[in-house]
Design goal:
Blueprint: H1 2-23, H2 26-47, H3 54-80, H4 83-107, H5 122-129, H6 139-168, H7 172-196, H8 203-221
Helix pairs in contact: 1-2, 1-8, 2-3, 3-4, 3-6, 4-6, 6-7, 7-8
Length: 239
């Protein structure tokens, strides 16, 4: 399943990056960057089913558990608001990501690789491989901040866009597509929460389901009308 998830996310990334190179748009850069992080984390998760590698663990936790949701959410902010209004939040996200990188690198020498087993998903055993927060894993305190920010922005932006199209009784595909994007984000958030509760076996199915919902939502919301291509979660005043 981790390999299926990784392959699916790679395809999704290629679609978004191709869309950026044909249509441009700063929001697509952040979406593609966040989804690329998701894909890297999925590949690392798949690798860790075969054997231990500390840098595979690094990319799985740093790009998957910590950053990807916030960077995808930042793309939604750029879509809904002007660049000038979003710029301060972008600077905070970049600085926060750099701070998280420092915390992650500081923790790497403290990993307890002797606790690792290929028989158990990394999402079920990561908490025993990483030291406690008070012993050097301060990155654990930063991770929820990125996830909460990303989830609120993604879900809020998708629901708001869906509501605007529904209220104007136009482009029903965008209404449905944005609802699927919001649902996919909530599924991913729920999977992360139950992983922290010790039910890590549900993370991979949750990732796969969330990725599927996000991708289908994007495809539905960008469905062609004649020759026109519509941007996912784009608000009516930008049409």
């Amino acid at each position: 399943m981790p390999f299926i998830s990784a392959a699916f996310m790679l395809v999704f990334c290629i679609v978004i990056w191709r869309r950026f190179f044909t249509r441009r748009g700063l929001h697509l850069v952040y979406w593609a960057t966040g989804l690329s992080m998701f894909a890297i984390a999925s590949l690392s998760e798949a690798y860790l089913t075969l054997g231990w590698n500390q840098w595979a663990f690094f990319t799985w936790y740093f790009f998957g558990a910590a950053l990807n949701a916030a960077w995808i959410g930042q793309g939604t902010l750029y879509l809904l608001f002007s660049n000038r209004r979003v710029l301060p939040y972008t600077m905070l996200l970049i600085l926060g990501s750099l701070a998280a990188l420092i915390l992650m690198l500081q923790m790497m020498p403290l990993l307890n690789a002797s606790e690792f087993s290929t028989q158990v998903p990394i999402s079920e055993q990561y908490s025993t491989i990483m030291p406690p927060t008070h012993d050097g894993a301060m990155i654990r305190m930063a991770t929820p901040l990125f996830n909460v920010y990303g989830t609120i922005v993604l879900v809020g932006g998708a629901l708001w866009s869906s509501y605007l199209f529904w209220r104007k009784r136009i482009l029903p595909n965008r209404v449905i597509g944005n609802l699927l994007i919001a649902l996919g984000t909530l599924v991913m958030s729920l999977a992360s929460v139950i992983t922290r509760m010790g039910l890590g076996r549900w993370l991979i199915p949750g990732e796969l389901l969330a990725a599927g919902l996000l991708f289908v939502g994007f495809v539905v919301a960008t469905k062609s009308r004649g020759t026109a291509i519509i941007t996912a979660t784009e608000t009516p005043h930008k049409s």
